[in-house]
Amino acid sequence: DIDECAIGTHNCSAAETCYNIQGSYRCLSFECPSNYRKVSDMRCERINCFNYLDCQNTPVRITYYQLNFQTNIVVPAHIFRIGPSPAYAGDNIVLTITKGNEEGYFSTRRLNSYTGIVFLQRQVKEPKDFLLDVEMKLWRQGTYTTFLAKIYIFITAHAY
């Protein structure tokens, strides 16, 4: 594998981030939706919400992640762990894949009341890119707070 991102042989624009994958690379762009501000390369935070329902139903934070696996990964494979940090006694989470899982390759499971995982439940036979939206609703002291993880998953051919 040549790291095109490190040696500069990619064609990503200045607005995009180069992400190296086995045998290639991807140009990714991370934009914050309106009413969010970029607080780091991979994170957006909500500026404000207009009413109680809006606060409940829009994520307080959107974070981008990139994961890289090969087609020969053994399933079921835990690929992502999510939970509040710090976690408190009484916390309770609900995890939902809200986008990107139309073919049913992925699923979620709670490990305990404050930790959940995303796992690959079905073998991906060919190289394929996914963008999953995984929503975590945190129930803490009588209030729900929503967090959104946008997870790029790149499945590449395995090297022999």
Describe this structure in words.
It comes from Serilophus lunatus. GO terms for molecular function: calcium ion binding. Keywords: Calcium, Disulfide bond, EGF-like domain, Glycoprotein, Repeat, Secreted. This is FBLN2 protein. Residues 1-45 form the EGF-like calcium-binding domain. The protein has 160 residues and is mainly beta. It has a domain at 49-156: Cadherins (Immunoglobulin-like). 6% of the residues lie in helices and 52% in strands. It contains 2 helices and 11 strands, in the order αββββαβββββββ. The protein has helices at residues 4-7, 52-57, and strands at 17-21, 24-28, 36-40, 43-46, 61-70, 77-82, 92-99, 106-112, 115-120, 128-140, 143-156. A 6-stranded mixed β-sheet has the order 3-4-5-11-10-7. The radius of gyration is 17 Å and the shape is globular. The mean pLDDT is 93.
Number of helices: 2
Q: Which radius of gyration do the C-alpha atoms yield?
A: 17 Å
Roughly what is the average pLDDT, rounded to an integer?
93
CATH homologous superfamily placement of the domain at 49-156: Cadherins
Distance between the termini: 12 Å
Structural class: mainly beta
The CATH topology of the domain at 49-156 is: Immunoglobulin-like
**Sequence of strands across the biggest β-sheet:** 3-4-5-11-10-7
User: Any idea of the CATH class of the domain at 49-156?
Assistant: Mainly Beta
How many strands, which pairing sense, and closed or not: the largest β-sheet?
6 strands, mixed
Task: Tell me the CATH architecture of the domain at 49-156.
Answer: Sandwich
Element pattern in H and E: HEEEEHEEEEEEE
